[in-house]
Design a protein that fits this description.
Blueprint (H helix, E strand, L loop, with lengths): L2 E6 L5 H13 L3 E6 L6 H10 L7 E7 L4 H8 L4 E6 L8 H8 L8 E2 L5 H12 L4 H21 L4
Parallel strand pairs: 1-2, 1-3, 3-4, 4-5
């Protein structure tokens, strides 16, 4: 079974990151969820990143707010795809600090970045990457996207 590592800087990020967990569950993708702070527990972050592949993780989704260094630091350690989720935290500069911390990575250390609090899209994107060589996930994504299309068509009824 395919597995996505979902990490976040603190437990206060969980309500946002839960959206990624939920969408991956919908697509039948296992997730391993951990609180791993780049600033408070760098050794834990380093160990998680170093052992990710051995632990069966195919992709990492990392969410962080404020000075959001977690996604980039993990991407600097492990050669797996890392998707960064900037989170608008209580001490954030309207989310821009976390967006720019994750988005502005140096050459050679890529982090795919989704919208502010966009954990749902991070989960969908991770599933789409896995679907490149997993037909079961691929078919579930097709059904999901057909459902989105139906919602738009149905929203026009009665206008």
């Amino acid at each position: 079974m395919k597995k996505v590592g979902i990490i976040m800087g603190s437990k206060s990020d969980l309500p946002v990151m839960q959206k990624a967990i939920d969408i991956l569950t919908q697509f039948g993708v296992e997730s391993e969820v951990k609180i791993v702070s780049a600033h408070r527990t760098p050794e834990m972050m380093f160990q998680f990143a170093q052992e990710a592949k051995v632990n069966g993780i195919d992709i990492i989704i990392a969410g962080a707010g404020g000075a959001a260094h977690l996604p980039g630091m993990v991407a600097s350690i492990v050669p797996l795809p890392v998707i960064g989720v900037p989170i608008k935290s209580r001490n954030s500069i309207d989310g821009w600090d976390s967006i720019l911390s994750i988005l502005q990575m140096p050459e050679g250390v890529p982090v795919a970045t989704v919208a502010l609090d966009g954990a749902s899209n991070a989960g969908i994107f991770a599933a789409q990457i896995l679907a490149t060589n997993d037909n079961e996930i691929y078919e579930k994504i097709i059904k999901y996207k057909e459902g989105l299309k139906s919602k738009v068509f149905n929203s026009n009824k009665g206008l």
